[in-house]
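fyi for ur records
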Amino acid sequence: MEGPLSKWTNVMQGWQYRWFVLNENVSLLSYYTSKDKMKRGSRRGCVRLKGAILGIDDDDESTFTITTHDQKTFHFQARDREEREKWMERLEESINRASKPRGSSPKEVPSSAELDRKLAETDAYLQLLIQQVKPREEAEEENGFGEELFDAAEGASQRSSRSNSLSTTTPPLCQSASHLAAGDHRVSDSPLLKEAIKQDSDGHFSSSDEEEFFDTTDHSESSHTVAAKKVEGVVPKVTGNELDKYDGLYDEGDEEGLGSLKEHGSIITHLLSQVRIGMDLTKIVLPTFILERRSLLEMFADFFSHPDLFVRIGDYSTPEERITEVVRWYMSAFHAGRNASVARKPYNPILGETFQCVFEIPGEENSKESLAEDGPVKWATKSDLCYIAEQVSHHPPISAFYAECQKKRISLDGYIWMKSKFLGLSIGVDLVGEAVISLLDHDEEYKISFPSGYGRSILTVPWIELGGKCNISCEKTGCSAVVEFLTKPFYSNKKHAVKGVVSVPGYSKPFCVINGEWNGLMFAEYASGRNEAFCDTLKMPIVKKRVQPISEQDPFESRRLWKDVTYHLKHKDVNGATTFKHELEQAQREAAQQRKETGAKIEHKHFQEVGENWVYMEPLVQRISSLPDAVNSGES
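which gave:
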């Protein structure tokens, strides 16, 4: 294959036209300054594809990257998405071909199902071997990690032709896997191996079966140890007085980042062996050590960590002021969701799981306020900002959430469906859905969308960033805003940039333009010529959510539901956390199977599906007519 592509050059700090020739026989991508130079054999350079990893930029449909065995990254740009896909397909085939051992072929080609089963057995056995050589790996980690990791990671770009690659596996590997299952009963009877065989035979890549629920699993310890701990009762459940002590764990702010993933090299390469470019990661088995000690439902509550900004939106008298305040709250709402610079993954909520909390408004005296017993959180006052969330669907995974402040007569009703995909050296997560802010005193609704999230540098020290354009609009007033989260360009070190443009009817130019960092300082320039520090998230105090003690929570509330997993993660007992997480997942599978057998439908507790949206069943706007006059008038 040959043709024109643009290649990024650091010397010129820009894209330069080149003529590329892919030699699939030797897995070499050569490039020339022109097609004529190619005919004369005047080559400008080349990229060796053996052990390389392909990557794409989710924000740009025409660019892609090749990261070579020695960790050099080359950036390329095609004319359009279609041309990029053609190059990616042929490059992937070439990389696959380079990885195949020459001169070896199995005497008999087994079926696809048999290959999948043997692969699962071999993967499980590999984890046992890793444990035996782990001390040596740790000693050699500093000197040899990078090269070994990229050697193993080449499988990430080989998955699209998985069966073909497996058909050339050397006989000793397949024979050892079969011998393992037949002869070594200690291993073949282990829970880890059985689970691996089940998951691989069901298919890691795509499924819509409810019974295949799983979030993460851990391969860092042998199945013998896990089984022994379960038998000996070393993994205790959190009960009694320990629950009271446990309640404070969430407020300590000691959630650690992942740091460098070098110490988990064998596990990360195992993950890479399961994925390919563009693949949906919903069903990929992830290690327990990456889990954050809270549910996704609780993480969404952090949108309201500055409740004073949210509830005061309706206090402003003009439409342009109100849309500006909506944007101010929105642009400051994302930084509080991360407890560490390197994000962990929150728990995947279980179907029917709920979470509720309240935020006290700074400066509000609510000790004399009556309880908002008809609201979403029965123990909150009318001055509090109440939040409630429910996992309303498992396939696809949809979380619905609602927040309101009765005294300020404001509410938000929203839902998010998280779609994740593998991008090579990054993971992309699209937040599909919307939220509607209702200002009852002005009879206004503001619709908002959400950005995408990206986990970058997943082979070294991972970090998170936001990207994409988000829209905010009010149909009644005609006011709107576009907030664009800018991903880090590969030619620059600028991270976390954000830009907001507020448009108001009657203005020939934007009413307000905001620039800055979504987790730092933002400045605003108004059409009038006025400038101001719009928002400084580094100095803004985060209001902590208030949650009922676990002993008073419903069994399906997030903190109570995940209490044993959280307890063991807090005490760095990954195996204990994995054991209890598997119990929750198994209960989920059994419940799904029971619904399937009986034909029972899922009964939602707080939200209902209306068209393509999920809405709270008893929003403030529906209950407002029955509220006392004092509240209706906005008085305390």
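Residues 141-234, 629-636 have pLDDT under 50 and may be disordered. thats all i got for now
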